[in-house]
Design goal:
There is one protein chain. The protein is about 60% helix and about 0% strand. It is an all-alpha fold. The chain folds into 2 domains: about 30 residues; about 90 residues, Cytochrome c-like domain (Cytochrome Bc1 Complex, Chain D, domain 2). Helix 3 packs across helix 7 and helix 6 crosses helix 7. It is globular and about 35 Å long. The N and C termini lie far apart (about 40 Å). The chain binds heme C. The site of heme C has 24 residues, from helix 4, helix 5 and helix 6.
Length: about 130
């Protein structure tokens, strides 16, 4: 099944389940708020390394991500390593599905454990390059 068909099918399924079962909505809402994984120094360091490898060419000074986020959200929101307002679930979603000008990043390019490390790194207090 193509990704689009699957996404549409999921959206329909989710919509019908939401109408039928409010409990599902509550569950979906709580999983959307899934916290960052327990951030040990080792996990954060692994996340920093994965970020350098997979994200930094677009998300540090001079990158397209930084440029576009500066235009869309303003300079102080443009470097995602300096932000403290990115929800773990939002980071996971954007990485796996892409966002307008950002291409999706597959599990082959960035396996789930590395994505979780990146999430921990970006969610760590005062994350910085
Ligand atoms: C090829 C360039 C590129 C790579 C690689 C890339 N990004 Fe992005 N990213 C972008 C662009 C461009 C945007 C802005 C999208 C837009 O608003 O159109 C963006 C936006 C985002 C946002 C949304 C920020 C917001 O406030 O909405 C997050 C989160 C994000 N990227 C995380 C990551 C992470 C984590 C990685 C590495 C695993 C990564 N990106 C790799 C280009 C990239």
């Amino acid at each position: 099944m193509s990704r689009l068909v699957r996404a549409v099918a999921f959206a329909c399924l989710a919509a019908s389940s939401l109408a039928a079962a409010p409990a599902f909505a509550a569950e979906a809402a709580s999983s959307a708020a899934a916290p960052a994984p327990a951030a040990t120094p080792a996990l954060i360091e692994r996340g920093r390394a994965a970020f350098t490898h997979r994200c930094s060419m677009c998300h540090r000074e001079g990158g397209t991500g930084t440029f576009i986020l500066a235009r869309r959200l303003g300079a102080e929101q443009s470097l995602i390593e300096k932000r403290t307002n990115l929800a773990p679930e939002y980071i996971r979603y954007v990485v796996r599905w892409g966002l307008v000008n950002m291409p999706r990043i597959s599990r082959v390019e960035l396996p789930d454990p590395d994505l979780e490390a990146v999430v921990a790194y970006l969610s760590a207090p005062r994350a910085g390059p």
